[in-house]
Amino acid sequence: MAPLEILEFPDPRLRKVAKPVKLVDGRIADLADQMLETMYEAPGIGLAASQVNVHKRLIVIDVSENKDQPLILINPEIRLSEGEIETPEGCLSVPGFYEPVMRFQQIQCDAIGRDGEPFSLEASDLLAVCIQHEMDHLEGKLFVDYLTGTKRQMIRKKLQKLQKQQA
Ligand code: GNR
Ligand code: NI
Prior knowledge:
The protein is α+β, with helices and mostly antiparallel strands. The chain is 29% helix and 26% strand. The chain is built from 3 helices and 7 strands; from the N terminus they run H-E-E-E-E-E-E-E-H-H. It has helices spanning 26-41, 125-138, 149-166, and strands at residues 46-48, 58-61, 71-82, 85-89, 99-103, 106-112, 118-124. A hairpin with a 5-residue loop joins strand 6 and strand 7. The radius of gyration is 15 Å and the shape is globular. The two termini are 24 Å apart. The structure holds ligand GNR and nickel (II) ion (NI). Nickel (II) ion binds next to helix 2.
């Protein structure tokens, strides 16, 4: 199975707000599996459906060392959040750039799994950061939005130049 194409900043499609998944059916499960494959191949520790141009509230994550703990979160909601943590973040849609971003250090979230069953998850540190990063994608938000305008423009110019060379 070929990996899905990942949209890159400043593609305006990354700015769309994703819609809730109404029914977790086989097609959604297949999409989640394809997204995991795309994420592992990239490689990355998370991927939001928005990044593969599917504007539905679905994210996949694996922060484990051995890449053997895939998480699929459908319609994720953060219920509780506490503390602060600053981590250098990267993004498959902003390739090659890493900048520190402030996030909640610990969160509790509710989501629906690949099997259609609701579940809750407590997360801290990198997993918590990754969930927040992916949930931002569902709102059309990117980590570069937390940087200064100057830095964001510099990144945009560099990426646009690379994208023109590849076209
Ligand atoms: O692969 C990724 N690494 C990463 C590192 C720090 C904080 C967040 C991330 S998510 C990113 C993959 C991605 O772009 N997900 O949307
Ligand atoms: Ni990202």
